[in-house]
Amino acid sequence: MRPDERPARSWRALLLPDVPALWVPIVEARGPGGFPYRELPLDDVDVVLWWAMDGRRTLREVADEADLSWRAFTKRVQPWIEAQAVLVGSRSWRRRDPRLERLIAPERPANARPSGQWVDGATQLAEFHGGIDDADSRFDRAETTLAHVFQDPHPALAGSRWGERLAAWLGPAQDVLQIGAGTGSASSCLDDRSLTRLDLSPALLAAQAARAPRSTGVLGSATDMPFPDASFDAVVCNEVIADLTASPSAGDWLVTPEPGQRLFNTGTFEALAEIARVLRPGGRAWVSEFGDIDELPTETTQLDHPEVSIHFGQCAQVARSLGLLAEVQRVPEALGLDLSARWLWRGSWMALRARWPDLPARAWTSETVPLPERVENLLDVTLREEGPGPLPGRFHALLLTRSVT
Ligand SMILES: C[S@@+](CC[C@H](N)C(=O)[O-])C[C@H]1O[C@@H](n2cnc3c(N)ncnc32)[C@H](O)[C@@H]1O
Predict the structure, then answer these.
(1) Which of 130, 135, 208, 359 has minimal CB crowding within 10 Å?
(2) Three-class SS of residue 80?
């Protein structure tokens, strides 16, 4: 540490002024879900020093302002630098210097894969989904979706809920099938229609029924639907298809493989065939997920089960081969999600959740997040950056219509 270096607060460290302490990640203990955190105790002088480290003053200037000898000062500050709660550099720092958001840490390890989730090179998750029983907490803790974090009215949706935007996209359709409805937050916005919910998890079906009491729940799979042909005016399948089987071969499906492609979204192709079958002529379907028009299907390794991103171009190819009209649109544009709206930066959110594991995952900002004690150094960013939910710009929707002829 040299007196002419300039210290700046890492965005990864939070100040807990009521304790007082810094709340910092334990970088060497990184797990699949992120970092564990610990408190670095502070006294009142430390709090003044912390705020003085604004990226402009030198270390010497900060020590002098607090009237501390260089030796006393470095003794206080050294542990913060070691914990990467403070970074030092030779020049002034910009507020969003990328180094203030990163940690020098081991690679994030992959989550364990219980046997049976991969069989002969293909994902098999029917048993996993059938066994989900933590309906209330699963989407807050383990598998946060966009529909989940935007389940309450939000400025990014001009005061609407995600489910209301889905309902608006469906138009006047009356007989609606919702595939994989999770906790039922969007189902509650479709409950004024004739709504059927199809899911593999009895616990999630029960949670959905509580939120959409007029609707009908059916236990079954998107890839083998227990419904007659032409049963529905519309189908909604929001953030489900990454869970369906991805296989090492495209089999007989009419897709053009990409060079080097090792996985194909075959479960989604099967679901599309079922959607084509159960839709009435003129009916519409919304099928959204993470992935891109030409993205090679890739496993997400931090979850407790292997989700595989979607190659939307190939899904559209399959949908067309099934006689559907198919268009791919980015989800923010399709639903009118304003990406310039703000939410908590993901690093801030992870730090809060490490302290309060029961905090529900919502598209909070530093102003709206309900905290039991004061927290400072939280960062808000636009929805173009990762927040409490996944990155909206990563999501696409396959917009399908069954032609009338
Ligand atoms: C990631 S969650 C998404 C929940 C909700 N649609 C949302 O956007 O928040 C996936 C949902 O699909 C269900 N699911 C997974 N595989 C399924 C399948 N093959 N058939 C029907 N539902 C399935 C899960 O039980 C869960 O309700």
Answers:
(1) 130
(2) helix
